[in-house]
Amino acid sequence: MIGLLNRLFTRAEPVLSEASARDAAVISSLHALSFRRGWSEHEIEALLIDRNVVTHRATSGRTLAGFILSRLIDEEAEILSVAVAPAWRGRSLGRNLLNLHLRRLAGLGVSAVFLEVGESNTPATKLYERAGFHEVGRRENYYQETAAKGSTAVVLRRDLA
């Protein structure tokens, strides 16, 4: 009985793997939950079938716990989106996804990775700083927070080579 209760109430660590076009619907749903303007299933599917896009996912059972998606351009990559389901935030899943993803990008010959993050997104900013990213630019009023006010996007870079 105790074993059954432990299995019911203990979450195993999510499994990290490459995503495929079959994951478009669940990635789109998590993206919409995580961002002001979510990407449609069609937009996500188009990215997932693009040979220049690398995507990793984290699953817990049949549930998507997180994903990270990048586009490759020559020897550089841009992280287009990262999201972790609310139930998994603050549990190192974003860090684990990012580390796996960066290792894969390095294995593909990528020498520099770029991304942008909202200046007010403190958890993401800390994640990227700890992973070795540094600021290389800013885009004022880039993200539309309200009809009258935008927030700054901070452009970050990390060299892999």
Helix/strand order, N-terminal first: HEHHEEEHEHEE
Number of domains: 1
Question: What's the architecture, going by CATH?
Answer: 3-Layer(aba) Sandwich
What integer value in Å does the Rg equal?
17 Å
What is the overall pLDDT average?
91
Task: Label this structure with key terms.
single chain, 161 residues, alpha+beta, Aminopeptidase, 7-stranded mixed β-sheet, 7 strands, 32% helix, globular, disordered N terminus
Which helices and strands occur, and which strands form pairs?
Blueprint: H1 2-9, E1 15-18, H2 24-34, H3 41-48, E2 53-60, E3 63-73, E4 76-84, H4 93-107, E5 112-118, H5 122-130, E6 134-144, E7 150-159
Parallel strand pairs: 4-5
Antiparallel strand pairs: 1-2, 2-3, 3-4, 5-7, 6-7
Task: Describe this entry's structure for a reader.
- Helices cover 32% and strands 37% of the residues.
- By secondary structure, it is of the alpha+beta class.
- It has a seven-stranded mixed sheet, sandwiched between helices.
- Helix 2 packs across helix 3 (41-48).
- The longest helix has 15 residues, at 93-107.
- The chain is globular, with a radius of gyration of 17 Å.
Question: What is this entry, summarized?
Answer:
32% of the residues lie in helices and 37% in strands. It is built from five helices and seven strands; from the N terminus they run H-E-H-H-E-E-E-H-E-H-E-E.
